[in-house]
Amino acid sequence: MDNNGQQNVDEQISIGGRVGSHVMTMIYGTTSRRIVLCSTTTTSPAAAAAAAGSSSSSSSIRVRAGRRAKPLPPLRCASSGMEPSAGTALYPLHRCKTLYLVRHAQGIHNVAGEKDFNAYMSQDLFDAQLTPLGWSQVDGLREHVKKTGLANKIELVITSPLLRTMQTAVGVFGGENYTDGVSAPPLMVENAGHSGRPAVSSLNCPPFLAVETCREHLGVHPCDKRRSITEYRPLFPAIDFSLIENDEDVLWEPDVREANESVALRGMKFLDWLWTREEKEIAIVSHSGFLYHTLSMYSKECHPTIRDEVGKHFANCELRSMVLVDRSMLGSDSPSLNYPGKIPAGLDLPSDIADQKQEAQKK
Q1: Alpha carbon distance 152, 205 (integer Å)
Q2: How far apart are CA 10 and CA 12, in angstroms?
Q3: Which of 140, 170, 150 is nearest to 30 (CA)?
Q4: For the segment 239-286, what is each residue's pLDDT rounded down to a tens digit?
Q5: d(CA 140, CA 154)
Q6: Which of 123, 129, 263, 351 could form a disulfide with 293 if both were Cys (CB 3.0 to 4.6 A apart)?
Q7: Which of 216, 258, 309, 318 is catalytic?
Q8: Active site annotation includes 216
């Protein structure tokens, strides 16, 4: 699906995608299309032919009953599009999380850097804030999130602790304009980061959590260096900064730029960490480099079409929905929607269970 609108299609494509020994799996999805990136078993031509032969030899099925049954019509899987595929997969719902990945809106560094790449070295871009156009992008995405019902589904908003990502996060997923006299602190105070924007309420919205692991490339560029947490707290009173260990930015180094591979590995650790959270629907507001290198790592071994779709760069304030699947038993949540049925005894015993018992008695 491109950024100009949704396609009215209903399709599911499964493609293998495992990175080394890493067994986390991501499912890329939109409202009407879902692409599964998962490890699959390759079927050899011989095995496929044997399977096809087995299928054709048993295509005429008779019902076992006390009287003679009328033959059922042969199954024609190939013509109906129901042939088995090694690419499809099923996963328990309680081992999945839905992620809504967002790149921050346009910042002053984006404008300056597009004109002159050397501008990224300017101290004037330290912890860059959003531009007026960036705030317009935030308003547009906020309207989309509310219109689609996403605002009511998200249980947690995780944001990189830089000014531009926190401004984007509270602007898109926060409450309405803050009103003096209410007991809850605002998510953002008025004019935070010279935004010229009114305060944003923390009422009727999910909790917000700042996490260092989803920051942009570390080092060299002043725009990617954060302020101290002491400076941020008065600007964003309702954002939870408790997971950030150091008040000052000790991760950013003036002479060393973080390598792309390091960013990707950091992204994979971040996604592993998400399984320590109980929330199932999580919005993550991050940066172009972090999102690009993390998703590119997961989509390395996919079909080129899928790789290009998943691994392409994010536009400013773009949102993509993903499903994260726990194939390594990192998560420990129990299936809250499952119902433990009971196999009845006696005459109501299901036929497949009865067949198994009969075979066992013969041995």
Answers
A1: 8
A2: 7
A3: 150
A4: 999 999 999 999 999 999 999 999 999 999 999 999 889 999 999 999
A5: 18
A6: 263
A7: 216
A8: yes
